[in-house]
Amino acid sequence: MKKNNYLLLCLLLCVLLQSCYGYVTSVDYTAIKNENCNEKPKLMYLFFEGEELPFNYEKLGVLEVEGERYASNSEVLEELKREAWGKCANGLIKINSGYKEREQGVVFVSETEETYRAKFYTAIAVKISLNEDFIAKYGEGLPVTFKEK
What we know:
Shape: elongated
CATH architecture: 2-Layer Sandwich
Largest sheet: 7 strands, mixed
Order of helices and strands: HEEEEHEEHE
Number of strands: 7
CATH class: Alpha Beta
Number of domains: 1
Number of helices: 3
CATH topology: Translation Initiation Factor IF3
Strand content: 35-45%
Radius of gyration: 20 Å
């Protein structure tokens, strides 16, 4: 009997823990091309909305990252880079940012619902064709020090 009560309590705790929303960074990735990723890039290049892109690249997917309530700009941008790296992208183009309304709370408990403004970044993850001309113009890029999750 005690074992059944313990299992029921564990199950209830798991359900309650899974019913929280808005407390973590949200990542949305839409693949344009599935990349066979044998080796993750060691460098990352960032190009913001409006910058010229006079080089060859292959689009891999569209990324959007929304920070949690207290996430800083740099934390959200770092997560954008981490997600792109995880998809084997060595560049992000058309990076855009702003703030969005987000909600957090516990499912089915309306008293816990709160709305806050969260920092977000969107970008297109790309695989840039690196050559001497590109590196001469844009440098070595940002070193990537991410580890697999």
